[in-house]
């Protein structure tokens, strides 16, 4: 008997919970664009893509400003820091341009072979960027005091652990400010 009452209560709760949803679906469609499960338009997706491309560059510039302030770069270190920063920003600008050049195609699906080839191309590009930044990074790093080196090492610890807050401040798996 208790199980039967429990089942009736659950059914009633389900019906009560579904009533607002059913009523919302019965509207004339004027609010159809507000449903959270609807696919965004191609224009919305293109705008979102462009914003992400621009944001990546802005984040790289922000991380560089953070590192510069954190290290308290001296006048004698300024040219070395500027050279490294310029190399990082040049690579970030190139990545932004490549990102913006990618044309979003709704429903675009890639095979595992195509996705692997794209990942390989991205990794080769990222490796080339790191290699182009390395001489400037080494020169800057050698000019730092032991305390600045510690700060620099700590400020970059975890920059490759993702973008969800695990591993330290201001991290991203595609860290443009890490040479």
Fold and architecture overview:
68% of the residues lie in helices and 0% in strands. With 179 residues, it is mainly α. The protein has helices at 2-25, 42-71, 78-101, 112-143, 146-156. Helix 2 (42-71) packs antiparallel against helix 3 and helix 3 runs antiparallel to helix 4 (112-143). It has a domain at 42-104 and 111-156. The chain has five helices and no strands.
Short descriptors:
179 residues, mainly alpha, 5 helices, 68% helix
Short précis:
The protein is mainly alpha-helical and 179 residues long. It has helices spanning 2-25, 42-71, 78-101, 112-143, 146-156. The longest helix is centred in the last third of the chain and has 32 residues, at 112-143.
Set down the secondary structure blueprint:
Blueprint: H1 2-25, H2 42-71, H3 78-101, H4 112-143, H5 146-156
Helix pairs in contact: 2-3, 3-4
């Amino acid at each position: 008997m208790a199980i039967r009452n429990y089942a009736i209560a659950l059914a009633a709760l389900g019906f009560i919970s579904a009533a607002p949803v059913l009523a919302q679906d019965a509207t004339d469609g004027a609010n159809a664009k507000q449903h959270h499960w609807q696919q965004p338009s191609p224009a919305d997706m293109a705008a979102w893509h462009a914003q992400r491309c621009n944001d990546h560059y802005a984040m790289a510039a922000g991380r560089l400003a953070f590192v510069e302030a954190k290290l308290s770069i001296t006048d004698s270190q300024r040219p070395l820091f500027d050279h490294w920063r310029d190399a990082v920003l040049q690579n970030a600008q190139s990545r932004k341009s490549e990102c913006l050049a990618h044309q979003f195609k709704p429903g675009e699906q890639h095979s595992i072979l195509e996705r692997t080839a794209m990942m390989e191309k991205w990794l080769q590009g990222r490796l080339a960027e790191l290699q182009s930044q390395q001489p400037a990074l080494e020169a800057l790093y050698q000019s730092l005091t032991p305390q600045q080196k510690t700060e620099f090492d700590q400020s970059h610890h975890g920059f490759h652990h993702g973008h969800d807050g695990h591993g330290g401040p201001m991290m991203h798996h595609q860290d443009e400010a890490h040479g």
